[in-house]
């Protein structure tokens, strides 16, 4: 839960939502009636609707009803990195590169996620409410389960993008909830808790239905990863650790050449990736095309100095060159390292500091050759010059928590994580 800045994020997301409400009524995006189109009837027709959304995640569908933003995508990952402190935006060599979050406000980007994600929700509701003939077949249940997973994921991303972080206040607002095929629905914003419960319910329904066909993407282990993310984001650390540990057990950490092969893969699934957005990207969203934009400014000295072991850390040469220009491939999706990091941070918040340290050392041993394990006494002191001063609960950083957050920052660079 490595937020760029807890207090800044609170203000930024309030601005995002405020701009959204000024520019357009949410009812525009909640209109789920497919005007001019007949409601599908057969399993094959409903399957086509679902597969179009899944193709949108893969990146090879121009349509996809906004599904390409369910795990974000390559372009979004670059934008979110630009808004944060891992790159020296002030040294950019192009006026076209996004410098800070205000570059997003006042543009269609500020509400495009809202619009696109509610389109996914609308399509899922149409399927869930109208699919009858064949619904109880094995294929039918796989389609239904996929819709629950897609809808839950859409609401999860909306929660992150447009609501304040968990625990900000007692009466936090969530998102407008639409779970039925109702063309007249114009709901107000629900509570944060109600939105959380809806996402949790959708994910658990998908999990219970046990998707076996990997073509539908949301197999049980993938849904467990999504639950880990949800619980972690909302501060339910016991549950977050439980599901994160299950993912790591199924997809153990990798190292050395196997890790290098995964990190340098420009597309497709490699190593311990569970899901990858833009797995088969369009030409304009390919890494070779987008990296020219990333390389218009160097990575920040603050970020680079985190690699204290330098060449002994496999990421030191994989992620950037001697000029501090990016060489890491963009990744948006789910991979095992994220869940190892979720587990150790959750252990810390649950009071298991020794367990968190043990997991941190194991993680670093998979990245740093001839690694010497930290002890509580040898952990680096808290860096008073860093922007983040507190953890996600508001407590002052300790050497152990800062070490965990630094490892997360290093590992998940250019994966859409730092912004959140």
Automatic annotation (TrEMBL):
Residues 28-231 form the SusD-like N-terminal domain. GO terms for cellular component: cell outer membrane. PROSITE patterns: PROKAR_LIPOPROTEIN. Gene3D superfamilies: 1.25.40.390. Keywords: Cell outer membrane, Membrane, Signal. The keyword Cytoplasm does not apply. Pfam families: SusD-like_3, SusD_RagB. Residues 322-420 form the RagB/SusD domain. Residues 1-30 form the signal peptide. It is found in: Cell outer membrane. Belongs to the SusD family. This is SusD-like N-terminal domain-containing protein. It comes from Segatella salivae DSM 15606.
């Amino acid at each position: 839960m490595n937020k760029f800045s807890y207090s800044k994020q609170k203000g930024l997301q309030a601005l995002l939502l405020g701009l959204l409400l000024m520019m357009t009524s949410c009812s525009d995006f909640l209109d789920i009636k497919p005007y001019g189109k007949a409601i599908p009837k057969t399993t094959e027709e409903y399957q086509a609707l679902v597969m179009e959304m899944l193709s949108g995640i893969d990146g090879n569908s121009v349509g996809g009803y906004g599904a390409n933003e369910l795990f974000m995508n390559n372009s979004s990952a670059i934008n979110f990195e630009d808004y944060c402190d891992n790159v020296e935006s002030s040294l950019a060599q192009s006026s076209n590169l996004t410098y800070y979050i205000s570059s997003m406000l006042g543009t269609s980007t500020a509400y495009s996620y809202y619009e696109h994600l509610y389109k996914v929700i609308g399509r899922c509701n149409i399927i869930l409410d109208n699919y009858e003939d064949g619904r109880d077949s094995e294929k039918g249940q796989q389609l239904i389960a996929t819709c629950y997973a897609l809808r839950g994921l859409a609401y999860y991303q909306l929660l992150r993008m447009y609501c304040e972080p968990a625990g900000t206040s007692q009466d936090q607002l969530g998102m407008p909830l639409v779970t039925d095929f109702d063309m007249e629905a114009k709901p107000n914003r629900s509570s944060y808790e109600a939105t959380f419960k809806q996402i949790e319910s959708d994910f658990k329904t998908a999990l219970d239905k046990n998707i076996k066909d990997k073509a539908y993407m949301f197999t049980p282990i993938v849904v467990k990863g999504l639950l880990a993310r949800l619980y972690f984001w909302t501060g339910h650390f016991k549950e977050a650790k439980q599901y994160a540990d299950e993912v790591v057990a199924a997809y153990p950490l990798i190292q050395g050449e196997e890790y290098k092969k995964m990190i340098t893969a420009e597309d497709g699934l490699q190593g311990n990736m569970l899901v990858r957005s833009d797995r088969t990207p369009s030409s304009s969203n390919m890494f070779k095309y987008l990296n020219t934009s990333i390389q218009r400014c160097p990575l920040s000295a603050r970020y680079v100095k985190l690699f204290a072991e330098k060449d002994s850390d496999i990421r030191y040469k994989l992620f950037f060159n001697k000029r501090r220009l990016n060489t890491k491939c963009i990744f948006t999706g789910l991979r095992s390292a994220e869940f190892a990091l979720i587990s150790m941070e959750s252990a810390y918040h649950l009071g298991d500091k020794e367990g968190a340290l043990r997991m941190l050392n194991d993680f670093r041993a998979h990245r740093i050759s001839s690694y010497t394990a930290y002890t509580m006494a040898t952990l680096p002191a808290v860096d008073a010059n860093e922007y983040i001063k507190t953890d996600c609960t508001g407590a002052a950083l300790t050497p152990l928590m800062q070490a965990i957050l630094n490892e997360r920052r290093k590992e998940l660079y250019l994966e859409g994580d730092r912004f959140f």
